[in-house]
Amino acid sequence: MANRDQPINRRGSKLLLIDKRTDTTPGLGNRFCAGLVVKLHLHDFGNLVLRSAVFGKHVTYWESFKFPTDTLLPNQNFTMNTNLVSSKSQTNYSSGYYNFYFDDDNILLLRFQDPEPLVSSVYWPAPWLGPFQTGRFTYNNTKNAVCYLYW
């Protein structure tokens, strides 16, 4: 969910896309581009992709698989800069107390963090177990995981 801690709640809101690196609108720069066609496409496997076709050239500006909020779908990559944050409850979608991420030893962790009083602890795997005891290995430095679905 975009802006999950400060959602937009009024009518007449507009969507504006800005490239953080250049502080411009993707594909437009600071001027209008007559050949720009922007499409939002939901793939069958769940990836929502914003892309354009400028004079036959396809450019992807954003895709949901690269910026997950609180859910992973099958075949979705989970990388070192990705952090899943739970919702507070089933009806309150603001940031919750659980974070899922790669730690500095390349191990996936689920951490509980309660802001008041400040309590933080590793929820999964058990913190007293080493990486090899939990079936995880620190020798893989790619920090890239893929979510698979098993039946």
UniProtKB/TrEMBL annotation:
It comes from the Eukaryota. It is a single-pass membrane protein. Keywords: Disulfide bond, Glycoprotein, Membrane, Signal, Transmembrane, Transmembrane helix. The keyword Transmembrane applies. The keyword Transmembrane helix applies. Residues 2-84 form the Bulb-type lectin domain. It is found in: Membrane. Its main location: membrane. PANTHER family: OS07G0415500 PROTEIN, RECEPTOR-LIKE SERINE_THREONINE-PROTEIN KINASE. This is Bulb-type lectin domain-containing protein.
